[in-house]
Design brief:
With 186 residues, the protein is mostly helical. It folds into two domains: 94 residues, Arc Repressor Mutant, subunit A; 65 residues, Orthogonal Bundle (Arc Repressor Mutant, subunit A), CATH 1.10.10.10. Helix content is 58%, strand content 5%. The chain has ten helices and three strands, in the order H-H-E-H-H-E-E-H-H-H-H-H-H. It has a three-stranded antiparallel beta sheet with strand order 1-3-2. A hairpin with a 2-residue loop joins strand 2 and strand 3. Helix 7 crosses helix 10. Pfam families: GerE. GO terms for molecular function: DNA binding. This is HTH luxR-type domain-containing protein. Keywords: DNA-binding, Transcription, Transcription regulation. InterPro entries: Sig_transdc_resp-reg_C-effctor (IPR016032), Tscrpt_reg_LuxR_C (IPR000792), WH-like_DNA-bd_sf (IPR036388).
């Protein structure tokens, strides 16, 4: 009687690491940066946490998140993201300079008080003032004149507002401020 020989052997951890390294290398630069940044987060995390870490709105991160999921490096579980396999984190870290990995390990985000995206408490007084003027449908030039600042300074404040609140446009900012105002009314 002839013995049955399996046609393929299960992959070894080294085989898995090699495949994962190839997938990491095959990502676009922005998706690779996103996956590398996730090594600073706990094993599962909310996309908003990644957005805050990278200082980019969630909307702008979606294509990179989808690319990382399609490459089999991240998985979406309910409203959380996680590495798809226990070897992904060490493989991704191996693709990074040692000094960066060491810095990430030292500065892993601690459980900070949770701030919701759109929390106006994140804004400085000047940023809040600029946001309120945007809500009045003023242009950057008009805001600059009112605040006696340059339009470039106003643009800088707007970028900071968008980053801190996880927004992508003036329309989203006006919508957020409108919702806040509506909840304050009796």
């Amino acid at each position: 009687m002839e013995k049955l020989v399996p046609t393929s052997t299960p992959p070894t951890p080294d085989d898995v690491r090699a495949r994962l390294a190839g997938r990491v290398a095959g990502l676009s630069p922005s998706a690779r940066h996103l996956v590398q940044a996730t090594t600073a987060l706990p094993s599962s995390f909310r996309p908003a946490r990644l957005s805050a870490l990278l200082g980019r709105s969630l909307i702008t991160l979606l294509p990179d998140i989808e690319e990382a999921i399609a490459a089999g490096l991240l998985v979406a579980i309910d409203d959380m993201l996680a590495f798809s396999h226990e070897l992904v984190r060490p493989t991704v870290e191996a693709s990074m300079p040692a000094a960066v990995v060491a810095a990430l390990r030292r500065e892993r985000p601690r459980a900070a008080p949770a701030r919701q995206p759109g929390d106006l408490g994140l804004l400085s007084d000047r940023e809040l003032e600029v946001a309120q003027l945007v809500a009045l449908a003023l242009t950057n030039q008009q805001i600059a004149v009112r605040l006696d600042r340059s339009p470039h300074t106003v643009n800088f404040h707007l970028r900071q507002i968008f980053r801190k609140l996880g927004l992508a446009s003036r329309v989203e900012l006006v919508s957020l401020l409108g919702r806040r105002e509506a909840t304050r009314r009796p």
